[in-house]
Amino acid sequence: xxxxxxxxxxxxxxxxxxxxxDLEKHFHRRHALYRHVGIVxxxxxxxxxxxxxxxxxxNSIVTAAMHPARYVLVDANPVGLEHTRDLLQRFxxxxxxxxxxxxxxxxxxxxxERFDLVLCExxxxxQEAPTELLSQIARFVRSGGMIxxxxxxxxxxxxxxxxxxxxxxxxHEEASTEEKLAILxxxxxxxxxxxxxxxxxxxxWILDNVIQPFQGRALMGLDEAIDALHPDFSxxxxxxxxxxxxxWYKRITGPASDFNAVANQMYLAELHxxxxxRTEHSVRKRERNRSLLAACNEAYQGIVNHSExxxxxxxARVMKALxxxxxxxxxxxxxxxxxxxxxxxxxxxxxxxxxxxxxGNFASWFGQGQQYLSLVRDRPLGIPESS
Length: 387
Ligand SMILES: C[S@@+](CC[C@H](N)C(=O)[O-])C[C@H]1O[C@@H](n2cnc3c(N)ncnc32)[C@H](O)[C@@H]1O
Known about the structure:
alpha/beta
């Protein structure tokens, strides 16, 4: 089983297109991301970039516009690669960049080249073994170079996974993808309209997040990604940007220069802010967030199992997980709590066979989804010897 690729190639799709009609807006968004994670566009000029899983290439045209000397793109989905080639031809065709578009599984890709920047967005979480794949791609980062990846944990993905559960209640397990879309687009589409800056079609988003089977696949939180690359790589930045390091730089020597430990602590203290993108809170005790994450993980596992095999035992597991979650969420924002209660009411209606449901506050509840994380492959300090 190959995550994403099996589903995409079976359906003959690449459901990751972004609305780039307003190119200026698209470029602004990508530049905002690069600013958050610490990529300086001017410094990419003349450099080498390797991108895993470019999808349909919408982000790749922004990367190409930074004038790297070499740009290699690797993906296993032929449909997405065709779109990527077309877009690069349209927007980077006349440039002097040495571009290679390679059809390959990431696992099989091999080269002796090492790159200044390795990109892998929207690929690692929900693979069977995300941190193993991360180690595979990190090999291609040259000493002092950067890797940019995305992470998703069960807290940041909770609202989406609750929709997966509702979708399972509203559709038949054996229904075709078209039949599921015919029910789910009108049911969930209005939720997606509440997201400011949403650049994907309703169909694509639902295919990718709700219909695509996740059985046997694992998420990957920021801490797991950081630990997988420690000590060879050090955290550089995140988007959303939440790393705060108030120490005087002159005190950062020896063991104090473990930036990964600082990032991991901040991540756990901030985790509750990933649950509901409409709300914002100050940091809180890491113990509380550990327990919140455990409840979200149990809900995620239960929902994924139930959506693949809708037995009464699977249903009971989800309902128990939702009960635990309800108490974990109780001291978060009242809007989140109201949204969760509205969701529980919808579950009861869908179970009763109703389809015309009032989602209430839940309709506009989305979490932070994926977080971007940049890390630099540490290299020796390069202290010169005195003559
Ligand atoms: C969700 S899309 C992300 C597209 C784009 N990077 C973005 O962020 O919008 C994931 C892409 O990774 C590719 N992919 C996932 N797993 C892969 C693997 N093991 N080998 C090669 N390509 C893979 C899929 O074919 C797809 O194009």
